[in-house]
Amino acid sequence: MKIEFEFFKHCLQPRPNVLVSCRNKKGENNALAVAYASNCSYHEPPMVMVGIVPNRYSYHMIKESNVFVVNLVPKNMEEEYYYLGSHSGRNEDKLEKLGLNVKDGKKVDAPILTDFPVNIECEVVDSMKPGSHEMFAGKVVQIHVDEEYVDKNGKPQLNKINYL
Length: 164
Ligand SMILES: Cc1cc2nc3c(=O)[nH]c(=O)nc-3n(C[C@H](O)[C@H](O)[C@H](O)COP(=O)(O)O)c2cc1C
What we know:
The protein is mainly β. The chain is built from 3 helices and 9 strands. Bound molecules: flavin mononucleotide (FMN). The site of flavin mononucleotide has 20 residues, from strand 2, strand 4 and helix 1. Its cofactor is FMN.
């Protein structure tokens, strides 16, 4: 037997756990936890989509810069993930507070979180706001993968990561 619901929050499961990092015009770096995330085009060009609520501090950074970085999250970074997902960059420099290492993106003006095994640099090509979240489609312009997740033939092995 099935129990019927009109709706409930976040009904599509399992949810991905990614960190989206970004930078504003003042040069402030920030990152937030994002579960509304997906691949949305696998070629010509490859794209990913992230959903950000307009009251997030990061939202205005992405609107301003039109770029973002998606960082994949392993289990051992759970504490950092939930901190970034429950505190706002409006009130503090979260990355500094957590002692996270950042590096400039190679192709975009946004920080890469180098403590995370995969960092995907994206340029916003489109966005739509069907509901609570503005969904930003980002063209993937550069991907950084920790060498332990690249095989001897140069092929990324992202299934080897123990994801949160
Ligand atoms: C597990 C988890 C998933 C989240 N997913 C999203 C999301 O998909 N989109 C979003 O805008 N906020 C999401 N949040 C909330 C933001 O990460 C949170 O509000 C954060 O503090 C915003 O930071 P900022 O104000 O520095 O941008 C999530 C939080 C958690 C803990």
